Amino acid sequence: MTDPARFVGDIPRHYDRGLGPILFDHYARDIAQRAALRAPRAVLEIAAGTGVVTRRLREVLHPQATLAATDLNAPMLEVAQDKFEPDEIEFSVADALALPFSDGAFDCLVCQFGHMFFPDRDAAHREAWRVLAPHGRYLFSVWDAPRYNPFSRIGLEAAAQFFLDDPPKFLEKPFSCPQIDPVKESLIAAGFTHIAVYVLPHLQEIPDVPAFARGLVFGSPLIEEIRARGGVEPEAVVERLAERFTEEFGSPARMPLQAILFDSVRG
Q: What is the mean pLDDT, run by run of 10 residues, along the chain of 267 residues?
């Protein structure tokens, strides 16, 4: 079975080029601006991936603020590190459920679209609480349900056309926690207070539909699922995806997206 959190090999480069500008940068700007509002001086980003949010955080944080970024996948962080000067960011490979930082080390913690992949989300919230100082902020976002993010449905349908008996399932995982109340209850149980929730719709232009389709196939564990099943060239899936995206989103393509952002405070 493919590990849904496994982003290795060439996946990070395709992820950064093909998906970063379309799926992640708009929301990265938003969460970075929110994080910077209270002028934090020690910020931690978890599940930082290829540094899309990291870049936006560094742009808006106070120049003297420290910024650390972690991810479970070293190949993702290698791409992120290439975007910064040496020692500009403290990068480290780390599990969000066992962070290598002391209690109360940060006054702000940020995580964009990583929460869905944590094998124990309650434990991740408790660990976030531990590394935050009293009154520190915890900001994280998840994708809303597939009906608000139709690219996920299209991706699942297009891939399933090639594998009728065993369709790839990776594209279900990023949309696996759109329910707000369970997340709020988990945050409260971990000790967080002043929980605010924002539903953030966005209409995203796709200037290069084939490049986005390629990113979705080659820039995620979907490519491992396709190769493991065999018998189908990944390029055929890319072509079908591009066709379906154009049919659904028009030309020029404009695609609806929707995220849910949680903003809470360590009590």
A: 63 96 98 97 98 98 97 96 94 97 98 96 98 98 97 95 93 94 98 98 98 96 94 96 97 97 96
Tell me the three state secondary structure of residue 183. helix
Cβ contact 194:138 at 8 Å: no
Is 136 strand, coil or helix?
Answer: strand
Q: In angstroms, what is the C-alpha Rg of the chain?
A: 18
- The pTM assigned to this predicted structure is 0.95
Q: Is the dihedral angle over the CA atoms 178, 179, 181, 185 positive or is it negative?
A: negative
Q: Which residue pairs, CB below 8 angstroms and at least 24 apart, start in 50-53?
A: 50/12, 50/15, 50/16, 50/20, 50/76, 50/79, 50/80, 51/77, 51/79, 51/80, 51/81, 51/83, 51/84, 51/89, 52/16, 52/20, 52/24, 52/25, 52/28, 52/112, 53/24, 53/28, 53/110, 53/112
pLDDT of residue 9: 84
Cα–Cα distance for residue pair 214/239, rounded to 1 Å? 8
Cβ partners under 8 Å of residue 230, min gap 6 = none
Residue ranges with strand state E in the chain: 42-45, 66-71, 90-93, 106-112, 132-143, 192-206, 253-266
How many Å apart are CA 139 and CA 232, to the nearest integer? 40
Strand order in the sheet with 90-93: 90-93, 66-71, 42-45, 106-112, 132-143, 253-266, 192-206
Residue with tokens 């090999």: 9
The Cα 143–Cα 111 span in angstroms is: 12
**Burial group, residue 207, by CB count within 10 angstroms (0-12, 13-18, 19+):** exposed
Helix (H, G, I), strand (E, B) or coil at 73: coil
